[in-house]
Design goal:
This protein is mainly α and 317 residues long. Helix content is 41%, strand content 4%. The chain has a 4-stranded mixed beta sheet. Helix 2 packs across helix 11, helix 7 packs parallel to helix 9 and helix 10 crosses helix 11. It comes from Medicago truncatula.
């Protein structure tokens, strides 16, 4: 996503996975995501999807290149290196970057025009990689540590490409505390349901350790990019701790303590909970609108963006 801080406001949501599923569409319940709240705080609109753009549609505020189920790694990585089933979506990070370049070529009058435009924008690269990590937990647990460097390298390569395109302000988010997610908690029972496997808040420690391992490697890569490109501001979004605090002190943020690890929408043919605002988990892999709102507040108002974002025009309610 690119937020333009100047007079010419723009968002380019390049690699974000929208938090929306079929059930949400059918029941007309809009499950918003963290970046929607961040955009609103800066007075910016929800982004149109690149693949559904119509001729003459206004793209001056930005475009969304993301696809549900997207991965950082492409099909070849999955087939030749990861030894697990290929992902459901073929719109990997590399494919989305190609679409961004197509958009650039059709939008900018010249290379100079593009660079001038991008210098006024904040690019958001992610969150991406979560589907890669979850796939290896559920299908090839032993290969998890081997795939992390590949995912980080893909994110780093995409970020570097954007810098070379003229981006001077970029956000790279980390991963969530996946050991607190309802879907992976259900999977965790297969690894033994011993008390010592869970932290004091009920999250599966091994899965969260994996997320922290990934985030540590990503932060190291970000710091290297900062050294290589000192004139570029690279902001790390700490999704892990922004979300983890909700599980640690749910009532402080308006959630029901007895429901923090339960999903509001458990899956097909299930009854949706009566009050989603009391839940952190929506359908297992995704969080509720209320949870994303709290995470967004932590990013915009601090302290989970490093370095901090510029002051927002509006408060997130």
């Amino acid at each position: 996503m690119s937020l333009n801080w100047g007079v010419r406001k723009c968002i380019i949501d390049i690699f974000y996975l929208n938090k929306l599923n079929i059930l949400a569409i059918l029941m007309e319940y809009t499950l918003t995501n963290t970046h929607s709240f961040v955009a609103e705080a800066y007075g910016l609109p929800f982004l149109p999807a690149y693949k559904t753009l119509t001729k003459g549609q206004d793209v001056t505020k930005g475009v969304n290149f993301a696809f549900a189920g997207s991965t950082a790694l492409n099909y070849n990585n999955y087939l030749n290196k990861s030894r697990i089933l290929v992902p459901a979506s073929n719109y990997s990070l590399g494919v989305q970057l190609k679409m961004f370049k197509e958009f650039r070529n059709s939008t900018c009058k010249s290379k100079k025009d593009c660079r001038s435009y991008f210098k006024k924008s904040l690019f958001l690269v992610g969150e991406i990689g979560g589907n890669d990590l979850s796939s290896h937990i559920s299908q090839n647990f032993s290969n998890f540590r081997n795939v992390v460097p590949l995912v980080v390298a893909a994110i780093t390569k995409a970020t570097t490409t954007l810098i070379k395109e003229g981006a001077v302000e970029i956000v790279v988010p980390g991963n969530f505390p996946i050991g607190c997610g309802a879907s992976l908690l259900a999977l965790a029972t297969g690894y033994g349901n011993k008390t010592e496997n869970y932290d004091e808040f009920g999250c599966f420690k091994a899965f969260n350790t994996m997320a922290e391992y990934f985030n540590d490697k990503l932060i190291y890569s970000i710091n290297t990019l900062r050294e290589n490109y000192p004139n570029v501001k690279i902001i790390y979004f700490d999704y892990y701790n922004a979300a983890k605090r909700l599980y640690e002190a749910p009532e402080q943020y308006g959630f029901d303590k007895s429901k923090t690890l339960k999903a509001c929408c458990g899956g097909p043919n299930t009854t949706v909970c009566s009050d989603p605002s009391k839940y952190i988990n929506w359908d297992g892999p995704h969080l509720t609108e209320a949870a994303y709102r709290q995470i967004a507040k932590g990013l915009v108002e601090g302290p989970f963006a490093n370095p901090p974002l510029k002051p927002a025009s509006f408060k997130i309610a």
